[in-house]
Write a sequence for this structure.
């Protein structure tokens, strides 16, 4: 497959690298992720300091967390050359049901996109509503199945009132959800009933 991942891996600081190594070893030895308190106790630092380091590592695409879930810290594979397969399930446009692909076949993705313990699938993008986030018409987005995302993250969202699925950045605003396209020619819109179906973790560029 002649496609490139848009995920950019950042460089950790010395302390962040130590935390990353500790999390990976903890997961390998115990089979589950350490808590923030366990990390704090190991390094003799405060929990808020650990939270800040984890946030930086998450922003650098060196680990993943799931909001509201305990022990959700997951490191990514250190071997960027490793390849994994995820199913390409359908086509997602600006709005409307996902168009299922008959006889979907697995596609190859860099294993560094995927965290341990997650379930993933791929969708082909139709349209330009997310072009300013580097997601173009014909690209394939890799999605981690989860029911929540943080404000500003890119998500696959189902709108039951419209029986439509859309790919947008999500923001919560009191009792409504703001769905924001990444295209200056398109306006954000609000919905009261939104079901997050997954978080976008990577993009495979269409073949040219």
């Amino acid at each position: 497959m002649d496609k490139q991942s848009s995920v950019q891996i950042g460089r950790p600081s010395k302390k962040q690298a130590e935390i990353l190594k500790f999390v990976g070893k903890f997961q390998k030895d115990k089979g589950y992720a350490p808590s923030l308190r366990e990390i704090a106790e190991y390094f003799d630092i405060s929990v808020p300091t650990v939270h800040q380091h984890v946030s930086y590592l998450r922003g650098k695409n060196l680990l993943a967390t799931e909001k509201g879930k305990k022990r959700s810290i997951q490191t990514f594979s250190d071997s960027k050359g490793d390849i994994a397969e995820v199913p390409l399930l359908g086509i997602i446009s600006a709005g409307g049901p996902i168009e299922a692909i008959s006889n979907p076949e697995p596609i190859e993705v860099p294993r560094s996109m995927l965290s341990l313990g997650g379930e993933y699938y791929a969708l082909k993008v139709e349209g330009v509503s997310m072009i300013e986030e580097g997601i173009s018409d014909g690209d394939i987005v890799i999605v981690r199945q989860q029911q929540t995302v943080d404000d500003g993250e890119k998500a696959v969202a189902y709108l039951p009132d419209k029986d439509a699925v859309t790919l947008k950045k999500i923001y919560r605003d009191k009792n409504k959800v703001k769905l924001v396209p990444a295209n200056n020619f398109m306006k954000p819109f609000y919905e009261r009933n939104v079901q997050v179906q997954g978080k976008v973790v990577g993009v495979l560029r269409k073949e040219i």
In short: The CA atoms of residues 106 and 156 lie 19 Å apart. The chain has two domains: 14-75, 83-204. The first strand starts at residue 63 and ends at 64. Residues 1-9, 77-81 have pLDDT under 50 and may be disordered.
